[in-house]
Write a structure and sequence with these properties.
single chain; 227 residues; alpha/beta; 2 domains; four-stranded antiparallel β-sheet; 10 strands; P-loop_NTPase; nucleotide-binding; ABC_transporter-like_ATP-bd; ATP-binding; ABC_transporter-like_CS
């Protein structure tokens, strides 16, 4: 029986005292791929922020990779994020550092000290996303798709139990979006749980998976043909 990576019971998400999403009940098992869809402003990003501790949970109960979101302490958030790989729409690579240096920065910040082990890990994750030959490139020398592959590699560095991807194809053209989704699906095929917020329905049709929709302050499952 697969382990539950995320469990939300009767959760209501607020932002500045406004209800964004209410009565969320959701269980995500290890190895699942889950899309969160919906128009801009319907709560996709607020949902994702709640999962990685950027938006406090105040109503309901939530457990993610062993952490209690309702009682999450501020000093626990960095440890939670080491067990979750986060991929953002705008890549968030350090512009003054090479691909390799971006990776080293994360490893050092999360407690790695052995230089040999760090380089082995960096080479491993870059190989997995098809970026091993571009380690010395600066972010501005990479295409948008290449930058997002590096961002995905960065999210894999600490071998997280769960990948949260918040609009990872939002700044990419259709072909590049499909390539990036292919990378995430391959990671999922190797056993990683992936939750992806998106409004890119084309990639959902190309790579179908369980889909939840945010609409009218609620979140509900939709079947593929009605997406």
């Amino acid at each position: 029986m697969s382990e539950t990576v995320l469990s939300l019971k009767n959760v209501t998400i607020y932002q500045e005292n406004k209800v964004i999403l209410s009565q969320i009940n959701l269980d995500v098992k290890q190895g699942e791929f889950l899309y969160i869809i919906g128009k801009t402003g319907t709560g996709k990003s607020s949902f994702m922020k709640t999962l990685y501790g950027d938006l406090p949970l105040t109503v309901g109960s939530g457990y993610i990779v062993g952490y209690d979101l309702l009682n999450l302490k501020e000093d626990e958030i960095p440890f939670l994020r080491r067990k979750i790989g986060i991929v953002f729409q705008d890549f968030q690579l350090l512009p003054d550092r090479s691909v390799n240096e971006n990776m080293l920065f994360v490893l050092k910040a999360t407690g790695w000290t052995d230089k040999t082990e760090m380089q082995v890990k960096i080479d491993d994750v870059l190989q997995r996303v098809g970026m091993i030959g571009l380690t010395n490139k600066m972010p501005h020398q990479l295409s948008g798709g290449e930058q997002q592959r590096v961002a995905i590699a960065r999210a894999l560095l600490n071998d997280p139990e769960l990948i949260l991807a918040d609009e990872p194809t939002g700044n990419l053209d259709p072909q590049t979006s499909a390539e990036v989704l292919g990378v995430l699906k391959k990671i999922n095929d190797n056993g990683k749980t992936v939750i992806m917020a998106t409004h890119d329905y084309a990639v959902i049709m190309k790579f179908p998976a369980k889909t939840l929709k945010c609409e009218d302050s609620t979140i509900f499952e939709v079947v593929q043909k009605t997406v």
